[in-house]
Amino acid sequence: MSNNILDFSMNRCTSVEAIDTTRLKSECCLRDSLTDARVEIMVALPDLTITSITGHFHHAWLKGSDILEPIFDKLVNVRVGPGMLKIIKGLVGEEEHLKELTYMVEECCHGVILTLTKKVLVKAPDDEAAKADFYSNMVMESIRLYDRCAAFAKGTPLVEGYERRNP
After folding, report:
1. Which entry of 84, 101, 138, 139 is 20 to 30 Å from 131 by CA?
2. Strand arrangement, sheet containing 35-44
3. What is the CATH code of the structural domain delimited by 10-109?
4. DSSP per residue over 97-116, as a string?
5. Distance CA 2, CA 160 (A)
6. At what angle do helices 84-92 and 68-75 cross, to 10 degrees?
């Protein structure tokens, strides 16, 4: 006799690669028991404009890749920076079957931001107290960093100072 137990697993990964001195490629991949999806954006430096976006989205019962091209076309020339999340949601739409796609595009953009931020991270002082202040101030100056990666997640040591000032 076999058990009818639901089996579900999920893997999501975002990576960023410097193609050359003028372009970054950011890719978000999602694979779970129902979905196989990938979104890839090319971003021009230094203005951080999306120059192209490609991908696929296959889901067991949601609309798939046939809807992507017109959506992706709308996102070309969007700037990665302040206000981008509102712009992306406005251009993609907030229909239920588009939420995962929207999230993946946002993840690609956040990957670009975090990649460029790492140059600042290495400038942190060695003293632990000064380091905590450095990171808290960094998050205060760029709120987009807050809760966007494991290092700046809610409740982590790197954002304690920020959270004390902004309960």
Report:
1. 84
2. 10-20, 23-32, 35-44, 49-59
3. 3.30.390
4. GGHHHHHHHHHHHHHHHHHH
5. 49
6. 150
pTM for this structure? 0.73
Written as six digits, the tokens of 113 are 């931001």
Give the Cα separation of 152 and 110 in Å (integer).
12
Amino acid at 73: D
Query: What is the Cα 54 distance to its own chain's centre?
Result: 15
As given in the structure block, the two tokens for residue 59 are 């889901």
Residues 6 or more apart whose CB falls under 8 angstroms from that of 49 comprise: 43, 77, 78, 79, 80
Q: Domains of the chain: which residue ranges? A: 10-109, 124-165
72/55 Cα distance (integer angstroms) = 9
Looking at residue 105, its amino acid is V
pLDDT of the chain along its 167 residues, tens only?
556 666 777 788 999 999 999 999 999 999 988 889 999 999 999 889 999 999 988 877 765 566 788 889 999 999 998 788 889 999 988 787 788 888 899 999 989 988 887 777 788 888 887 887 888 888 777 776 777 666 677 787 777 777 877 77
